Every structure is written in structure tokens, then in C-alpha cells.
């Protein structure tokens, strides 16, 4: 996040020196003296008396707003400024300048607190600084509701604080005004994760309402991500979150048709190939999924996600062959079926080995590799892979 330049604001002392005390009520004269002394509470007290006695006192409301600003009470400041402008436009220029000044001041505080929070190692300190950052950005939004930088700032602060419900409306503002691609991604991801949590709740509770709520979250993710895809049809994250949301919402057929159309329209688009493959894999269409992942890897040999999922496809394919045959032939073992199963594991092996060379710190991948080595009758390699997985989990 970046700081913004602070606009020139009205300086009350200079204003009072310029306007003087002539033709003022007793309350206004007293208020200006208190303002020169920076006694804001006394100034506010007499100015409230002034505007009560004279509801048409544009200067009284204006000075009252400026005093509330010094107390950092932005709600009262804005209320007083609005009442001054309702009476006349005499102080409109000064009010606009003051709002911009205080917006920049709060926005910069939000940025500073956010950056400090990111540098903390103590969770309590980080939480406190994030709270201060969120407050500052929220005040900035009150002052300049059409300036989008503060919405972006507070949205990311709330993400850091894991206050996702508070982050969503700020991201939605960025979508409404700017069609910001990252906002579509974050909102889609938030709704997807909410759906996953709700689905896990249903698995424990078996209450139908929990399942319906999970489905609602997945559908919300699909809706926002589909809108994001219109902004950028080829964004990898949007396509990935979208395909995962379709799978979670049990709308695989709809998603398969949509991504298949994308592949037909853009056959050399690795992202469409990859996500089409993810959907096919989720539907246990192993052969077709492998074809899509292989094509994605042909287009981009360094496409690690496609390499990994191609390996997973072969592993799941091999496991499915073995399981299906075991169920159908409990008392017999067919060497042919065992060979076919091992062929799939063998096909997965080079892709897994390639993947762990690039991503060496993933314990789950090393464990999967160990299982494949075991199936392939490679005990030494299997032992080394399992050992590596254990070392990673222990932090060695």
C-alpha cells in the first residue's frame, strides 16, 4: 500500500486571523479565542450554544465541524459541515479542502499501521495494529466515499484479520466502481471457503439447513467468479476458483460444458485445458482428464499445477482399477488387472518426480511419491520419500 500526498487544509488560526472578530456573536467571539488557545472542548461547547441560538449560523457550524475534526470525531465533523453548507455555500471551498486533508491523514495512518502490523512477530501486536489500520481506513472512507484506495486498504486489513464478512462489502465496492479483478478473486475465494466450512459442519450435524447454506455459499462464489471471468476470461486464479466452486456445488456437468466450450474456442489456452482437466478429474473421467493435463503441459512444460494433477490423475486411475476389480472379484486375483493398475502408477511416477524437484518442501507430495514407489516395488525409494515427508513435517 502507498501513502498519498496530504492536501492543503484550512488552518484555523490563519482563518481566524483573516476573518477577525468583527460582527460576531458573543459565542463566536469566545469560540475563536478558545480555538486560538486550542481548547477544543470549550470551543465546541460555546459553538453548540451558538448554533442552538442561531440555526442559520453557517460560520458557527463550520467552526464546530473544524473543532470536531481536531478531536478526530469525523461523524460530528461531517454533520456540522453539512449543516453549514445547508445554510450557505460560503465555506464550501474550505470544507472540501478540510475533508481531503483529513481523508489523506487517515488513509496514510491506515497504510502505516498496516505495514507495521505486517512486520510484527507477536500476534497480539499485529492484531492491535490491524485494528487501528481498519479504523483509520474506515474514517477515510467516511470522508471521501468515492475514493477507492481506502476501500482497497481496509479490505486487505480485514482479510489479514480474518474478518471476511467485513472485507466483502469493501471488495464489492471495488467491483462496482472499478471492476477490480483481484476483488472478484477474493470475494469468490471467501464464499468458496465459507461453503467448505459449512459443508464440514453438515457432515457432522447431518442437518439439512447446513447443507443448503453451504450450497448457497458455493453458488455465490460461482456468480461472482463468472462475473470476474467476463472481466478477464483467461485469469488462472479465477478459472481455478470457479471450477472448484462448480465441483463443490455439484454442478460438474454445467462446468464441464462451459470449460469444454472454452477449450474448443481456445485450444492452446493452458488455463482452460487445466481447469477442464480438473473438472473431468472431479467427475472421475480419468482418461479425458489426463489428456487435458498432458495438453496443458505440452503448451507449457513448466506448468507445475498441470504436472501435479496429471500425476494425481494417474494415481487415482490406478487406484480405481484396483478397487473395482477387488470388489468384483473378492476371491480371485487377476494378474492382468494388477498390471493395468501398476501401469497407471508407473505413468504417474515421472510427473511426481519432476514436481518434487521444483517443490521440495511439500510433505504430502513426498508421501504420495512414497506410496507410488511402494506399489511399484521400489522399497528403498519409498523409504527415502517417506523419510523426507517426516523431516518436512518436523521442520528439519
Protein architecture, described:
This protein has 396 residues and is an all-alpha fold. Among the domains are: 9-90, Tetratricopeptide repeat domain (Serine Threonine Protein Phosphatase 5, Tetratricopeptide repeat, Alpha Horseshoe), CATH 1.25.40; 266-359, Alpha Horseshoe (Serine Threonine Protein Phosphatase 5, Tetratricopeptide repeat), CATH 1.25.40.10; 361-396, no CATH class. Helices cover 80% and strands 0% of the residues. It has 19 helices and no strands. It has helices spanning 12-19, 26-36, 40-53, 58-70, 74-87, 92-118, 123-143, 149-160, 164-178, 181-205, 208-231, 236-248, 252-265, 270-282, 286-299, 304-328, 335-358, 363-375, 379-394. Helix 9 (164-178) runs antiparallel to helix 10, helix 10 packs antiparallel against helix 11 and helix 14 runs antiparallel to helix 15 (286-299).
Helix/sheet category: mainly alpha
CATH architecture annotation name of one domain? Alpha Horseshoe
- Our estimate of the beta-strand percent is under 5%
CATH class of one domain: Mainly Alpha
Mean pLDDT: 90
Main sheet?
A: none
| SSE sequence, one letter per element | HHHHHHHHHHHHHHHHHHH
Runs in which pLDDT lies below 50 for 5 or more consecutive residues are: 7-11
Q: What is the CA-based Rg, rounded? A: 31 Å
- Termini Cα gap: 35 Å
